[in-house]
Amino acid sequence: MQDSSALTIFLPLALGVIMLGLGLSLTLQDFRNVLQKPKAVIVALLCQTLILPLACLALVYLFKLEPALAVGMMLLAASPGGTSANLYSHLAGGDVALNITLTAINSALSIATLPLIVNWSLAHFMTGDQAIPLQFAKVVQVFVIVLGPVLIGMWLRSRFPEFAARMAQPVKILSMLFLFAVVLVALVQEWETAVTWGPVVGLAALAFNLVSLAVGYCVPRATGIDRRQATAIGMEIGIHNGTLAIAIALSPLLLNNATMAVPAAIYGVIAFVTAAIFGYWLKRAQTDPAAARHLS
What we know:
Distance between the termini: 48 Å
Shape: globular
Number of helices: 13
Largest sheet: none
Helix content: over 70%
Mean pLDDT: 78
Strand content: under 5%
Low-confidence stretches: 1-6
Number of strands: 0
């Protein structure tokens, strides 16, 4: 892939709009909710930061992915939940407030966990001068891209609540359009790689998505967390922020490796379908006692 000024501008802009939309739905009370629901938050964070990276690593070895694709998968695993998880959680009857809290906390934690996991993956899978470490300056850039717009959105909501309420839906729609556009850009820019590795990476991405959804729902349920919160965690853990992973992989300021963006691009398409099916299944279980028993 050749660098282009359009790509350099578009990717941070797309991510910025998505994270701004998230910020418009956040208040300081969402962060205080952490103190009210510590168990659900702790279980979700353990799934996100510990179980999923290990599961992803196992899948990377199982599918024998080439080094750059392996790093791309680990980058995806290290990315926090996607903003669309809130919408899917709402449709499935989940605790959306918990989703928002987890998204905010995961986004903040990813400033530390994402570089650590990606750096380890680069050192482990890449050799020689192929490795491109995420230096401190680049970590700061990720912080600005990810949390800067969120803080702006929160400020707008606190300062101009009526304006924020009016803008929330249009920004959400624009965010979804940007999400599709970023996935499309990644596929177009690296179409040959996607066609070459699509069958293998597609299976790996599908497997990781299904594992993420299962871990996100079943682990909380096994620890006694109620179904509504487990649904929220399942969506939060199961729908990774593929846009963030793509932006980091493609951006000339960060990893600048299009092959590393392929897993996230393919995952982004798969997750929309599997999350919809998973959400329908969970919603049906709320009104079907027989189905509900299988989820208890």
